# Entry
Amino acid sequence: MKKTSYRSAICLLAAALAGGTLHTSANADTMRIVVTGIVENNAFGFGLLKNTVVRPNDPVTLTIEVDSDVYLDSVQLPGKVRGYPFNVNATGFNLQIGSVNISRDFRFPNAYFCLRNNDPRVDGFFISQGTDYPTEIPCLIGETTAQNNTLAGYGIAFSRTFNNAPPVPSTAPDPTLTSLDIRGAVGSWGFENLSVFNFTIQRGENSTPLIIIYQTITITNLTPPSLRCNPADIANDDGTPLPPVGVPGGTNNGVTEGDYNLFFATFFDAGPACDIANDDGSPLPPFGTLATNNGVTEGDYNLFFAIFFDGCAF
# Structure
C-alpha cells in the first residue's frame, strides 16, 4: 500500500467527525500550498505572538500539504466546494510569523484546504475546520500549558476569492478554476484578479488580534511526472508495480505482458495498482479527470481491456 495509508486513516476519522464521505485513492499527488503576507498590526499582549516579538511588517508564510485524491465534498455546497485535509506528517502544516514558528493544536483535529468553483459564479480558496465556509485552524500560541488553555481556539484564518466573473447580465461563472480538482489549480496569484481576502490570527470573526496583509498564494504539484504511457501501463516489464504503488528504478517499456500479469494478479484483491479509472470507466489523472471513484471496480477492468491491446511505448 502507499506510504500515506496512516494519513488516510487519520483523515477518515476526521471526515467521520465532520460529516460526509472522504474520497481516497492510492495514486494521489502531493500538493503544496504556500501563502505569504506581512503583519499589519498585532494586539497580542502575551504568548508566542506577543507584540514585543511579532511586529508590523514581519513576514508571514503559511505552508500546507494535501493529497490530491483525498478530499471531502461540501455537504451544503456539493459540486461547488471541496476540502482537502491537511496531511498529518511533518510537512502538512507550517506557519512562520516573523521569528516565531507556530504549530497546529490537534485538540481540534479537522483542517481542510478548500476550493470554491462557481459558488455561485465565484472561484477561490479558503481554509477551514469543515468544508462549507471559512474558519480558523486552531494553533498552539501560548508559551505555557495555561496560556494554551486560555488561548485555545485561536488560529490562522485565510481566504481569497477571484474577481473574474463576466459582468451581469451574463450568468457565466468565473473561469479561473475549471473544476474542484486541486491538480487543476496549480499556479500563483498575488493581487491580480482579487476580490476579497482574509488573513488573520483569530478566534471567530469578532476576535482578530493579529492582522496579516495577504501577498501571494502558490499551489504546486510535488509529485514527479508520470512514468506511464497510458492508464494500462501499471507495471515494470517484470510485473512489479510502477510508482507510487511500487518503488522507482525498474525497467518499463510501456504496455507489456508485465502490466497484464500484475492486473490479473491483483485486480480481484482490489490491488491499488489496478485503480486506474473512475467508476464509469473514464481514466483517472494524469490521463483524465477525477470523478466518482470508489476504488477498484468494474470501471477499472473495462478501461484496462479497452486499451491494453492498443499498447503504447516510450
Remarks:
- The chain is about 15% helix and 30% strand.
- The longest helix spans residues 5-18.
- Residues 128 and 135 are 5 Å apart (CA to CA).
- Residues 1-13 have pLDDT under 50 and may be disordered.
